[in-house]
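WP5 quarterly update. Target: YCII-related domain-containing protein. Source organism: Paraburkholderia kururiensis. Length: 102 aa.
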Amino acid sequence: MKAWQALSEDERRAKEREGIAAWGAWVEKHKAAIVEMGGPLGKTKHVSNKGVEDVTNALTAFTVVRSASHEQAARMFEGHPHFTVFPGESIDVMPVLPIPQG
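Structure tokens (predicted):
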């Protein structure tokens, strides 16, 4: 993020255009597997027995994809613009598990 913030306004806008184009290309390549495009995430509220409090986590956006395996889903995000163009550091891929039946 420090390197991103060190860019001039013109450099940052050029990188944003590059990133948006690369993201669009990623979406086009994987459109058959995208179930929910998702989008950017805002501030986090943590809810527990203690009540509601503001917290910080590393989640910045989400997308839901369908794949034959967890490994295959993770491979879809290799080289993703989130961290190759934009200042994101990584992408976590988590499976949605079935709800246990009682």
